[in-house]
Q: What sequence folds into this?
């Protein structure tokens, strides 16, 4: 499904260059749920943004379904079936929830379909469908609308960058239930998360540290090692 | 009424009129009234001293509309039109104005529309004004509206002022004086492109106890266009005033926003917010992750901003 081959990502820091990702290679298999975890600054979000095309790697190749997408734009990657849920949802002036879901779907969807999408993230469509996606909504509401916009994409590969961040009213249980459902729908999920309850859902956990893979494997094994290290 | 295709386009754009509307109306084309109707509650009469209309709305008139759109479809016409609206006590009406100019000739065409509103106690007015220009001639499409509101106690006015596109030069002046508990809400949307110039000034005087004003201007300046926005709120009593100016700057355009608050009473609460900047990068990125191209994303953001 997705292969990252020898990815480097550097940024300027003063006169020197700081390596955020260092010769990183990994593979995400189709219809699996992979969680990438690791300490702050380990390069997790950068990795997700590189897959979506938001950031460009200094070196390396990205292969999606045997197509080299390294030089493709964000739009082209979206059209090839990648969806990306932002850690900090974006706010707009004059774009309401229904508009956003229509843009995400690519076609005009019925209000009933839009309502179903909102219901799946615990929002009442009567109250939210025509609300502007702006700063008058709480962080939690914006986050759930962000996730609904990803569901509206019907994409093959769904990337969630810290989906738990800002989930206030909506319970964690609902979020994990949603991921289980997506997994059952044979979607491929790549989730950036620190949360053990999300890590436990994974088919595979990848632990990043200082831009490199420190560990990877089944949740039971990886979590046991993490707990051991914390002692 | 026989309208040319250009005049039809103007009336659609500025007043959403595809056929003769319900209620009172006056259609003005190339300096002349081409259709007028009064109703039982709304009387439209031409002025005798200058070009323009006196529009009398009877006290207590509810849910009625007045359409007074203007079209100019010839080159070189310059006109000043004085329309006075007398809104009777307790009335609740919608007034749809607006002007469009089609100019495919060599000489400037200009419309100066001076609208005065005398809103009597307890009355409510929703005023919609759209300006629009098109036509590829060298002659400019120039629109200079003046809007004055005299609001008695317990009145409400909602102004929706929009310059859609194609207006080469505009100087917009809006003045309002509010009595006790009067409430003014202004939503201005201004878009300039090419070499267009726009000036828009507001001078809102909150004289009445517990009077309120909320003036929000959203502007988009593209290409090498210029905009100069001046928003002044004066608080002379216990009152609340809020003005907000948000502008998106594109290409080599320039926007100047000058807020001004004058408080002459210790219980006056006045706030101003202003922000000028390019289209937010995160908004573009988000819409591109949903499959839009950069151009499509820009267009969605601009359309949303001007809603």
A:
């Amino acid at each position: 499904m997705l292969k990252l081959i020898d990815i480097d990502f550097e940024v300027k820091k003063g006169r020197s260059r700081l390596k955020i990702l260092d010769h990183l290679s990994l593979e995400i298999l189709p219809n699996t749920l992979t969680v990438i975890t690791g300490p702050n600054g380990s390069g997790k979000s950068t990795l997700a943004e590189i897959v979506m095309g938001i950031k460009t790697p200094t070196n390396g190749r990205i292969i999606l379904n045997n197509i080299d997408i390294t030089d493709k734009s964000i739009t082209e990657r979206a059209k090839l079936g990648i969806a990306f849920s932002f850690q900090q949802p974006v706010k707009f002036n004059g774009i309401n929830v229904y508009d956003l879901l229509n843009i995400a779907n690519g076609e005009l969807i019925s209000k009933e379909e839009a309502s179903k999408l909102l219901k799946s993230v615990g929002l009442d469509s009567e109250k939210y469908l025509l609300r502007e996606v702006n700063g008058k909504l709480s962080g939690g509401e914006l986050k759930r609308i962000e996730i609904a916009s990803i569901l509206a994409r019907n994409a093959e590969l769904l990337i969630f960058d810290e989906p738990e961040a800002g989930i206030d009213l909506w319970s964690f249980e609902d979020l994990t239930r949603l991921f289980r459902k997506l997994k059952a729908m044979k979607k491929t999920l790549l989730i950036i998360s620190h949360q053990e309850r999300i890590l436990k859902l994974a088919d595979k956990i990848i632990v990043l540290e200082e831009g490199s893979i420190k560990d990877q494997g089944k949740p039971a094994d990886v979590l046991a090692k993490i707990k051991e290290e914390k002692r | 009424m026989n309208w040319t295709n250009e005049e039809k386009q103007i009336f659609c754009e500025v007043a959403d009129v595809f056929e003769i509307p319900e209620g009172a109306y006056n259609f003005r084309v190339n300096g002349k009234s081409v259709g007028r109707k009064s109703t039982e509650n709304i009387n439209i009469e031409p002025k005798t001293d200058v070009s323009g209309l006196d529009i009398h709305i009877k006290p207590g008139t509810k849910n009625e509309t007045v359409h007074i759109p203007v079209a100019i479809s010839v080159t070189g016409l310059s006109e000043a039109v004085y329309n006075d609206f007398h809104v009777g006590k307790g009335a609740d009406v919608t007034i749809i104005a607006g002007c469009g100019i089609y100019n495919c000739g060599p000489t400037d065409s200009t419309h100066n529309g001076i609208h005065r509103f005398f809103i009597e106690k307890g009355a409510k007015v929703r005023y919609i004004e759209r300006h629009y220009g098109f036509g590829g001639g060298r002659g400019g499409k120039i629109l200079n509206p003046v809007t004055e509101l005299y609001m008695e106690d317990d009145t409400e006015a909602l102004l929706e002022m929009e310059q859609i596109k194609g207006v080469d030069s505009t100087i917009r002046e809006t003045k309002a004086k509010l009595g006790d508990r009067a409430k003014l809400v202004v939503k201005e949307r201004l878009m300039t492109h090419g070499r267009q110039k726009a000036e828009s000034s507001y001078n809102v005087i909150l004289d009445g106890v517990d009077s309120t004003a909320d003036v929000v201007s959203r502007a988009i300046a593209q290409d090498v266009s210029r905009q100069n926005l001046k928003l002044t709120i004066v608080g002379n009593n216990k009152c609340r005033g809020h003005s907000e100016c948000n502008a998106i700057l594109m290409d080599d355009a320039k926007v100047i926003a000058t807020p001004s608050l004058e408080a002459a009473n210790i219980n006056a609460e006045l706030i101003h917010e202003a922000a000028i900047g390019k289209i937010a990068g995160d908004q573009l990125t988000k819409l591109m992750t949903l499959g839009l191209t950069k151009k499509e994303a820009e267009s969605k953001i601009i359309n949303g901003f001007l809603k």
The CA atoms of residues 5 and 61 of chain A lie 5 Å apart.
